[in-house]
Design goal:
The chain is an alpha+beta fold. It has 2 domains: 30 residues, no CATH class; 43 residues, no CATH class. It contains 3 helices and 2 strands; from the N terminus they run αααββ. It has a two-stranded antiparallel ribbon.
């Protein structure tokens, strides 16, 4: 069984104070990091910037996909032109 790695980071006073009342800070921090990683953009990995190669892949993908706002939750999401209702490509 592999021993767990220890990762440390600097925290300012306000973060340190906010974490004071949490009984198991390590578990809390692990959960927060995993939740943040689960919400990270799969292309840029959270940097907010695509490399030139990623940009080429995105342009190819974008040829058959659109970014649209959901009518229900109002969040932006990807829609495949092949499955879009009423699309000439969807066969309807």
């Amino acid at each position: 069984m592999k021993k767990s790695d220890i990762i440390t980071f600097k925290a300012d006073k306000s973060l340190t104070e906010a974490l004071e009342g949490i009984p198991n800070r390590s578990r809390f921090i692990r959960s927060a990091v995993l939740a943040a990683l689960d919400s990270t953009c799969p292309l840029c990995k959270g940097t907010g910037i695509m490399t030139p190669n990623q940009r080429q892949h995105w342009e190819s993908f974008r040829a058959d996909h659109e970014v649209e706002q959901c009518h229900d939750c109002h969040e932006m999401h990807l829609v495949c032109a092949h499955k879009k209702p009423g699309s000439a490509r969807s066969g309807k």
